[in-house]
């Protein structure tokens, strides 16, 4: 459970796949489109051949689509307009779709838009590590991914530690020491993410992040995603009490993600020192037209992002039962967190002096 290699969204294109259960993430990408366009207009400078004739974009944590294709189209549309408005020849576009090696790349590439205007490549690997040659990327995009950790804080799975997260699968309801352990691990991982991106991005290149976050000053207990994971943990404990699974297996299971506040993110970026924060804006709250469909849609989303973790640890046999219980508990959880979702768009620009170093 401390391995990064089991983090992948549910593959395929079936009823429980990430492909068909990522509408909330899709809406956040849509809300960020105007900010992406503004970022490119202000900060991307057209290249002059023969210096370079290929504009390179990487989407990190791409999963299986279709959201990654929408995000890429939003970026390239804005870049093409930038070139046209400055009377430069539009370059070739190379797009790298990157995720863990166990990501369902087959589904991803089978669903590539047939009329795309870019060359597509898959890059397996963790975005916490170096993935690309030096100074090869112009834009890095990462949506709904940076909250995933490279590993679990080791002390929360150590029975001899006072931070042992017994009976919980995440940090809400687990005490400040567990929250702090998650926070420290996220700070380490995010700083490493910035370090390796600083090597891969060209001078003046950009990182665009869309992420679920926690408003400054808001307790973790009022953050919707951790609260939902707390409810999922209660479902697993219910199964343990019924004897369906071993309680020790629940004690050893923790979801490796942390939801930062803007203040926490800004602190890590400033301490890292490699990028300037050019933009940090909250996105509109996600609107769901049919309120009655929320429990089912939320359950589908959480299942799509945690199913592989649960299957790896407990086996696939419990999936339907645990998520059946989870959907029942969601109604109560939503009454507590309704309207509190908070998504953030961040634009980071590589400092010139960092690149020269």
UniProtKB/TrEMBL annotation:
Signal peptide: none annotated. It comes from the Eukaryota. The keyword Magnesium applies. SUPFAM superfamilies: S-adenosyl-L-methionine-dependent methyltransferases. Pfam families: Methyltransf_7. Keywords: Magnesium, Metal-binding, Methyltransferase, Transferase. Belongs to the methyltransferase superfamily. Type-7 methyltransferase family. This is S-adenosylmethionine-dependent methyltransferase.
């Amino acid at each position: 459970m401390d391995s990064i290699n089991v983090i992948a969204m549910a593959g395929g294109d079936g009823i429980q796949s990430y492909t068909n259960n990522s509408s909330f993430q899709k809406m956040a990408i849509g809300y960020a489109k105007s900010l992406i366009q503004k970022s490119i207009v202000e900060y991307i400078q057209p290249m002059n051949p023969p210096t370079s004739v290929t504009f390179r974009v990487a989407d990190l944590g791409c999963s299986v689509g279709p959201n990654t294709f929408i995000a890429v189209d939003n970026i390239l549309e804005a870049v093409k307009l930038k070139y046209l408005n400055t009377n430069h020849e539009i370059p070739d576009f190379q797009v790298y779709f990157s995720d863990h090696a166990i990501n369902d790349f087959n589904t991803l590439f089978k669903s590539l838009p047939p009329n795309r205007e870019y060359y597509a490549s898959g890059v397996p690997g963790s975005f916490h590590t170096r993935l690309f040659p030096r100074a090869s990327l112009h834009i890095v995009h990462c949506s709904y991914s940076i909250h995933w950790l490279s590993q679990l804080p080791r002390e929360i799975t150590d029975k001899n530690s006072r931070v042992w997260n017994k009976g919980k699968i995440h940090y809400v309801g687990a005490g400040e020491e567990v929250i702090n352990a998650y926070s420290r691990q996220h700070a380490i991982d995010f700083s490493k993410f910035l370090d390796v991106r600083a090597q891969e991005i060209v001078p003046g290149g950009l990182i665009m992040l869309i992420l679920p976050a926690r408003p400054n000053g808001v307790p973790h207990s009022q953050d919707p995603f951790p609260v939902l994971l707390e409810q999922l943990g209660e479902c697993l404990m219910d199964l343990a009490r019924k004897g369906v699974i071993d309680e020790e297996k629940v004690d050893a299971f923790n979801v490796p993600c942390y939801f930062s506040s803007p203040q926490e993110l800004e602190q890590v970026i400033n301490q890292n020192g490699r990028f300037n924060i050019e933009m940090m804006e909250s996105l509109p709250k996600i609107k769901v037209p049919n309120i009655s469909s929320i429990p089912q849609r939320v359950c589908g989303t959480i299942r799509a992002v945690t199913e592989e973790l649960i299957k790896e640890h407990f086996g696939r046999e419990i999936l339907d039962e645990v998520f059946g219980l989870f959907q029942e508990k969601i109604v109560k959880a939503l009454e507590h967190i309704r309207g509190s979702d908070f998504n953030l768009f961040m634009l980071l620009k590589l400092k010139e002096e960092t690149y020269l170093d």
